[in-house]
Design goal:
Layout (H helix, E strand, L loop, with lengths): L7 E3 L5 E4 L6 H13 L7 E4 L29 H10 L7 H14 L10 H23 L3 E5 L2 E7 L11 H7 L5 E4 L4 E4 L4 E4 L13 H12 L7 H7 L14 H17 L12 H9 L24 E5 L4 H6 L6 H13 L6 E5 L6 E4 L2 E4 L4 H18 L3 E5 L1 H8 L5 H4 L4 E2 L5 E5 L2 H5 L3 H26 L2
Parallel strand pairs: 2-3, 5-6, 9-10, 9-13, 13-15
Antiparallel strand pairs: 1-2, 4-5, 6-7, 7-8, 11-12, 14-15
């Protein structure tokens, strides 16, 4: 790092000003923070300025940061700090970079500071991180493209108003999801343009730059009205999840008042028909476990078996979902401990995925079987049984909040998508779920156990490739 970098300046008293080239440039902040730490410059002597912000009246730009005595001196930060910091840097709070540098400075003397959730700086960083993640989720959920006909060539344009500097960070999501479309996302904080090959960034736009609608929206409104479920309507929760400020950019939002108004009568009819079988979802994993042990909502729960709850870290980044417990899982009360589980452990380890860091569960919580003498022969759950048990899987997802879900087998895929899909067609293709998590689908390890010869070798190779892709995506999500 040279001494004369123009973005670092010092006044006579030793206060330094760092001018960032972009409000979301985490890499620039990290490089300058490293130099400042190597020079032992304390947080109260650093002023961080993003583009468009006013400078420090007392800062002088005549001198640049001195050269560290040891330019190779290591500056360490925990993985948790780096993961959190990358999101915090995207927040619109003007003090975010000062907060991050203060935490990094304190990290030197207390490497475990990020584990102290009561620390004011840690707590504030977590609040900013949560706000950014929520804003990104809103962008994923509420961007609505309108079709433009540009001389016979289709071009889709969307308008979105983010609260934070998340546009560039979410470019990859939209590029993967709409890879075969030509599209633009216009926002007041900058624009993204994808032509099917190259991603370009553009300057901020205004609402008048975006189209108002297209004929396809009539079809979308009809579809939205047909899938609106009054049984699951909670107006307060809906407004919290989908604030009204997003409605003006969503064609289906014009239907919401009328749909809400008629929901109570429709709900009453559904209750009378027996459609509402569950009460409120439990608010803890322990509550889910207790509830599934008492669940008798489908024929599987009436068999002589024991419910098997998922297990793993409360805030696991990865959730692995199988079909249902087997005989050994039923007896032990733990998921994936039988032959399929042992095979899964082998391939997870081979792919470099630590099972102890994943939350492992099943789409169906009880073992479905047919008695044959003293043996219990596995039977696949029916679609209705999977759909009934989906309530509990959704409860686990809402509490664990994984960023990536690996569904193994058609039953697990149905439980997460609400429909049956072909594993061969969807494997290796990440799909975004409504809560912002990514779904990856592969075969179930028990399927590999039923094969032999070349067929098993081929399917095993595909299974390993799927796990390898999941591992790489996890590393991206972790910011490694």
């Amino acid at each position: 790092m040279s001494a004369g970098h123009p973005a670092l300046a010092s006044d006579v008293a030793g206060s330094y000003t760092v001018e960032l080239p972009a409000p979301d440039d985490f890499d620039f902040w990290r490089d300058r923070a490293r130099v400042l730490l190597q020079c032992d410059v304390p947080p109260d002597q650093v002023v961080w300025i993003e583009p468009g912000a006013g400078g420090d009246l007392f800062a002088v730009t005549a001198r640049s940061l001195p050269v560290p005595q040891d330019p190779h001196r290591t500056v360490r930060a925990s993985k948790r700090f780096l993961t959190l910091a990358k999101n915090v840097a995207l927040h619109s709070d003007a003090d975010r970079f000062a907060l991050l540098y203060r935490l990094l400075w304190r990290h030197r003397s207390n490497p475990r500071i990020m584990e102290d959730r009561a620390d004011p700086d840690v707590r504030r960083a977590e609040e900013l991180d949560k706000a950014v993640r929520r804003d990104s989720h809103k962008m994923h959920a509420f961007v609505r493209f309108r079709l433009l006909d540009e001389g016979g060539e289709e071009h889709y344009v969307a308008w979105f108003e983010p609260e934070h500097h998340i546009v560039r960070a979410n470019a990859g999501f939209f590029m993967r999801r709409f890879a075969n479309m030509r599209w633009s996302i216009l926002t007041p904080k900058g624009c993204l343009h994808w032509d099917g090959v190259t991603m370009r960034e553009g300057p901020p736009a205004s609402r008048s730059d975006a189209p108002d609608g297209d004929p396809v929206e009539d079809l979308w409104r009809s579809y939205y009205a047909s899938i609106f479920n009054p049984a699951r309507l909670k107006v307060g929760a809906m407004l919290k999840e989908m604030p009204k400020r997003y409605w003006k950019n969503m064609p289906e939002a014009s239907l919401i008042p009328a749909l809400v108004a008629g929901a109570q009568a429709r709900e009453s009819r559904m209750v009378e028909a027996g459609a509402l079988e569950f009460e409120e979802k439990p608010d803890t994993l322990e509550g889910v476990s207790k509830a599934i042990h008492g669940c008798r909502k489908c024929p599987i729960g009436l068999l002589e078996n024991t419910a098997v709850m998922g297990e793993g870290p409360r805030e696991a980044m990865l959730m692995i979902v199988g079909e249902q417990p087997g005989d050994q899982e039923d007896q032990s009360g733990r998921p994936f401990v039988g032959p399929a589980g042992q095979l899964l452990d082998f391939h997870l380890q081979k792919a470099g995925i630590d099972r102890s860091q994943a939350y492992v569960t099943n789409a169906v919580k009880h073992f479905k079987y047919t008695p044959r003498g003293r043996r219990r022969i596995h039977q696949s759950p029916a679609a209705k049984e999977i759909d009934t048990c989906r309530w509990w899987l959704e409860s686990e997802r809402a509490l664990v909040r994984p960023k990536l879900i690996l569904a193994m087998g058609a039953s697990a895929a149905r439980a997460l998508l609400g429909k049956t899909v072909s594993i061969a067609r969807v494997r290796g293709q990440p799909q975004m779920l409504e809560d912002g998590s990514e779904l990856w689908i592969t075969a179930h390890p028990s399927y590999l156990l039923r094969l032999d010869g070349p067929a098993r070798d081929a399917q095993t190779g595909m299974f390993d490739a799927d796990l390898h892709a999941v591992r790489e995506r996890l590393r991206e999500l972790e910011g490694v």
